[in-house]
UniProtKB/TrEMBL annotation:
It comes from the Bacteria. One of its GO terms (biological process) is homocysteine metabolic process. Pfam families: B12-binding, B12-binding_2. Keywords: Cobalt, Metal-binding. Signal peptide: none annotated. SUPFAM superfamilies: Cobalamin (vitamin B12)-binding domain, Methionine synthase domain. This is Corrinoid protein. It comes from Synoicihabitans lomoniglobus. Residues 1-88 form the B12-binding N-terminal domain.
Length: 211
């Protein structure tokens, strides 16, 4: 098993220390950082997402894998910066106003980061105007809105309304969270809905036209 295969396995298994060590080994072997992501990290998280969808693993296991990927990325990102390499896409993400939950949002952000997205994470309890301001500043192709509480769904509705009314450039909006459904996404005019972080990567790539 070569270094990239070992790294992919370490990330999928949630072994953060191994993921960091193997990422450094891959760099020492002069493997391009983008190849490390494309050939090890992205397939690992795709595997994790697929197992999650099939109920073979659950949120704790997915979180551990995401943390392992974060350990690997912490070594790789400086190399991208120094080489002037930037992700192909940009996404703004946050939990809508009134919602302080961030586990699902953080999972999606990490998954997107490993799928060639630059992530602008606005955190939790984000007002609609802050989403709009971030879209104007960073000019993303995608905005991700998260809500765990039913009581914060009106804030999601208002955020979509403001983004549609105030942003004069094309931007795709994806929503997700426990009380969110495809029907709700259709009703409020969102472009996409993801029931979990694994699906969120597939839907994100579909929305931005990634090949």
């Amino acid at each position: 098993m070569n270094t990239l295969e070992q790294l992919s396995q370490a990330v999928a298994s949630g072994k953060g220390n191994d993921a960091k060590t193997l990422s450094q080994r891959a760099l020492d072997e002069e493997i391009c950082p983008s190849d490390i992501i494309d050939r090890a990290l992205t397939p690992a998280m795709a595997s994790v997402g697929e197992r999650f969808r099939k109920n073979l693993i659950f949120v704790p296991e997915m979180l551990i894998a995401a943390r392992a990927m974060k350990e690997a990325m912490s070594l790789l990102e400086p190399h991208f910066v120094s080489a002037g390499i930037v992700p192909k896409y940009t996404a703004v993400i946050g939990s809508v106003q009134g919602d302080l939950h961030d586990i699902g949002k953080n999972l999606v952000a990490i998954m997107w980061k490993g799928a060639d997205f630059r992530i602008i994470d606005l955190g939790v309890n984000v007002p609609p105007a802050k989403f709009a301001a971030a879209v104007r500043e960073h000019r993303p192709q995608l905005v991700g809105l998260s809500a765990l509480l039913t009581t914060t769904l009106p804030a999601m509705v208002e955020t979509v309304r403001i983004l549609r009314a105030e942003i004069d450039r094309p931007v795709r909006i994806m929503i997700g969270g426990a009380p969110v459904t495809q029907q709700f996404a259709d009703e409020i005019g969102a472009d996409g809905y993801a029931p979990n972080a694994g699906v969120a990567v597939e839907r994100a790539h579909a929305l931005v036209g990634a090949t």
